[in-house]
């Protein structure tokens, strides 16, 4: 069992920055690929970025060059640094943990709202 708690969302002006954090507890953190997803009103949830326990990353094309995902395995925390934010980045951002070998085993955080507006 893994519990995920996100923090760091809020209101920011276009061009600004935010850093999201996701603290995990309960199970062995290194067994999970950690990711950030987002869901805007009326749209499907989409992958923003993911990072493996060894630090390999992948990003949605829409955020490449602006967002950076990282993880601290000792602190069981994953981060999403978001720079040059745009109005279209407005969404609820969810932290996800996906087990590397057990198919279908994954967990979600409760979500944190990010609003980019002037």
Characterise this structure.
It is a single chain. Helix content is 0%, strand content 53%. The protein is mostly beta strands. Strands 2, 4, 5, 6, 9, 10 and 11 form a 7-stranded mixed β-sheet that branches. A 4-stranded antiparallel β-sheet has the order 1-3-8-7, with no helix packed on it. The chain starts with a strand and ends with a strand.
Count every beta strand, where a strand is a DSSP E run of 2 or more residues: 11
Taking pLDDT < 50 over at least 5 consecutive residues as the criterion, the unreliable ranges are none
Portion of residues in beta strands equals over 45%
Span between N and C termini?
A: 40 Å
Shape: globular
Largest β sheet strand count, sense and barrel closure:
7 strands, mixed
Helix content bin: under 10%
Number of helices: 0
Radius of gyration: 14 Å
Mean pLDDT across the residues is 95
One letter per element, helices H and strands E, the order comes to: EEEEEEEEEEE
The structural class is mainly beta
């Amino acid at each position: 069992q893994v519990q995920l708690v996100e923090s760091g969302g809020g209101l920011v002006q276009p061009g600004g920055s935010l850093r999201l954090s996701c603290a995990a507890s309960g199970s062995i953190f290194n067994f999970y690929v950690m990711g950030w997803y987002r869901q805007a009103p009326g749209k499907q949830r989409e992958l923003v970025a993911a990072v493996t326990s060894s630090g390999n990353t992948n990003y949605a094309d829409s955020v490449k060059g602006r967002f950076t995902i990282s993880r601290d395995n000792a602190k069981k925390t994953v981060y999403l640094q978001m720079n040059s934010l745009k109005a279209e980045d407005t969404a609820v951002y969810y932290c996800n943990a996906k087990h590397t070998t057990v198919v279908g085993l994954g967990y979600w955080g409760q979500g944190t709202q990010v609003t980019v507006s002037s």
